[in-house]
Amino acid sequence: MKDNTLYGPIAHLYESFSDATDHIKVEIRTIFNLAGDIHGKSVLDLACGYGLFSREYRNRGASKVIGVDISENMIAIAKSKSQQYGDDIEFIPPSPFTMYRWSREQYQTAIQKAGFKQFKWQKPMLLESDIEAHPLGFWDDYQRNCLDTALVCQI
Prior knowledge:
The protein has 7 helices and 5 strands. It has one domain: Rossmann fold, CATH 3.40.50. By secondary structure, the protein is α/β, with parallel strands linked by helices. Helix 4 links the parallel strand 2 and strand 3 (90-92).
């Protein structure tokens, strides 16, 4: 499968610019607030990138973590970091048989077919302290244009 044209060429730079901004703290807090207690559970991290959240799931007690991403370059970086940290996370490269570029509607259809009855898309949760720590308007564009951080599902 041809590497994703958006992330393949920048994979080696992604960590340095994505983790350098304040939004990453908000996204981490949002994801783990939604995930709740993951100790002893298995986690599938879709669109895992270079494995930031995968490693955080493992560090927070997940018994098994599998990361999947469409970018072969991101998976290579994630595997390298996993070896470096010795965290035994399995990272799976894209395959035409396992990876699909679905739209949101297709994700929702797949989730419904899997038996989940309730789901909602979650935007990052900003705290008042996040907003107060920066000049007026700092978060405005981010809040208007941020991607949904997580899909919250219930059976």
